[in-house]
Amino acid sequence: MVEVIRGVLGTKEGGSLPQGLWQTEQIRALERSWAEREGQPLYALMARAGAALRTYATLHWPESRCWWIFVGPGNNGGDGYVLARLARQIGIDVVVIAARAPEQLKGDARLAADEWLSAGGRVWLAEQFDGAQQPAPDLVVDALLGTGVSTHLSLLLTKIVATINGLAAPVLAVDLPSGLNGDTGRAMGAVVRATRTLTFIGIKQGMLTGDGVDCIGQLDCDPLGVMPDRAILPAAWRIDYPLLCEWLSPRQRSSNKGGHGKVLLVGGNRGMQGAIVLAARASLRAGAGLVRVCQHPELPPASLYQPELMSLTTADDEGWASVRVIGPGLGQDEWGRGQIARYLTDRLPLVLDADGLNWLAQSPRHQDNWVLTPHPGEAARLLGCTIADIEADRFAAVQALQQRYGGVVLLKGAGTLIYDGERVALCCEGNPGMASGGMGDLLSGIIAALLAQGLSATMATWLGAVIHGEAADLAAADGERGMLASDLLPLIRRLVNPDTITS
């Protein structure tokens, strides 16, 4: 039975359940454990995969009558050979294009290829294939590599991927788009751009971050009857708003503003007041009881932009705040340096963002009381590497950041990652409309407000990320291009009150 994974590419139908994300070697271990426990050969899973693919393809493309199936040299190719044989049984015109001759295959892939040939099927070698001599496909199946890629594609495979991407037909990727590293989410040179991907056993963690979000298309998962082994825990967890919103219980009738936390935001240098105002407004909308702003003294008071905001008029907050945010619009001049020296604390819960992170990169320290929210550029400065290094393995990067600096680290980007030293969470909310100024400031303000209301650093960061992304997805109803950070503010208020949301 196919389990549809909600929250991918903006799909929001139905609810959401906790969802483990797996590394490719863990999937192989789950397969071996299943085979040993059930006393069955691994080929039985290949047969199930082929059958699941046929059902899936006929469900989503019921009018398609000519399938081009590109098969690779490993078990992903074996899945393709099984699919070809089963599709031919129901009258589909199947063209199989192989990266390697069937007689050169080994193991289960060879068995699947032999069964295809014994059933009267034909194999075209990719190097000799002339598509002009074949009927045009109305469905293309990518069964080249699946999870079996950890290095850049060869010249031949690169050419095959280019052929797949150039065909005027929908593309079904088997388990994983070929060329995508299932562990890191990086394209290993060329990568197939799938219309839909049917993955097996469990979702590979790289599918929902980095390049994965652009090439998987609509993602569905079929466990093939393999139940998780209790001895093998997921490498990461997918989180979204429907899963976490139950943590936002209604307030007691006797509540007062002092009981919902006091947030102090430090930043807003000359020319950058908008950043601190956005962060402060987000704290208000996310439910902080009182919000105070410390900004450059030459700027007009923040209350001109939001009457409910207070300004800090003394040299420090004199123990007033329960949570601090440092960084939005802070700047890197002497005024900014002075605020870092004055307000950086190892006692209060703290959110460090933007220039707060840039100052931290210059004077590294390890603390357990903060939440760090870098984008890839800031992460590269914090780790002394390049943005390309960060994006090459976002999972490794977020863990390295936490190990070096402590606390909870949120690495922004498509497929935001959060690591608290124990668990990696992946937020699959959000959309490209968020690639605009001020969005990160909102996130800092939301997380701070949740901390102020008593949530743990981990839960405040998880919830902050999914509220931020879900608000952007709701705002995208009017289009992603041109979305402003301030467009999210009324939606943040709605989302921190899930009891008011009707289905």
Describe this entry's structure for a reader:
- By secondary structure, this protein is of the alpha/beta class.
- The protein is 35% helix and 16% strand.
- Strand 15 (323-326), helix 9 (334-343) and strand 16 (350-352) form a beta-alpha-beta unit.
- Helix 3 (75-89) runs parallel beside helix 4 (107-118), helix 8 (273-285) crosses helix 14 and helix 15 (457-475) crosses helix 16 (489-495).
Topology:
Layout lengths: L2 E2 L14 E4 L1 H15 L4 H18 L5 E6 L3 H15 L3 E6 L8 H12 L4 E3 L13 E5 L11 H12 L4 E4 L21 E5 L2 E2 L7 H4 L2 E5 L13 E4 L1 H4 L17 E5 L6 H13 L4 E5 L15 E2 L11 E4 L7 H10 L6 E3 L2 H8 L7 E3 L3 H8 L3 H6 L1 H12 L2 E4 L4 E4 L4 E4 L11 H14 L4 H19 L13 H7 L8
Parallel strand pairs: 2-9, 3-4, 3-6, 4-5, 6-7, 7-8, 8-10, 11-20, 12-13, 12-15, 13-14, 15-16, 16-17, 17-18
Antiparallel strand pairs: 1-10, 2-11, 18-19, 19-20
